[in-house]
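Homework help board

Subject: predicted structure for assignment chain

Our instructor gave us this sequence and asked us to write out the predicted structure in token form, then describe one feature. I got the tokens but I'm not sure how to describe them. Can anyone check?
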Amino acid sequence: MAAILLAEDEPVLRMLVMDSLEDEGYEIEVACDGEEAFERIQEREFDLIILDYMMPKMTGIEVIERTRELENRKHTKILMLSAKSQQTEQDKVLQAGADDFMSKPFSPLDLIAKVGDMLDG
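My token output:
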């Protein structure tokens, strides 16, 4: 079973994503802000990290940059979720070290497919 860290500050979206992925058999650990996400990343290895772009205490970009500085987390898969869907924002996310980007709003089925592709690839 793949272990996924979900960092999302919006409670309703956090529950939707968590429930959708747990229904697919994934083990989900949750963080409610960027600082908490980075603490969990340092404590445990995840198969995939799903980050919200705009979070309190530390943005998703900051979490990505700090995660990529950790020697043992350089190759952890990272998916960024964001309502900022402009190409410049997507480029910024990918340059920071994310593996993929998904614009909000999104369908839970699309998210499940994206997660499956990222974990299989």
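Reply (TA_rk): Your tokens look well-formed. For the description, you could write something like this. Residues 33 and 55 are 5 Å apart (CA to CA). That's the kind of observation they're looking for.
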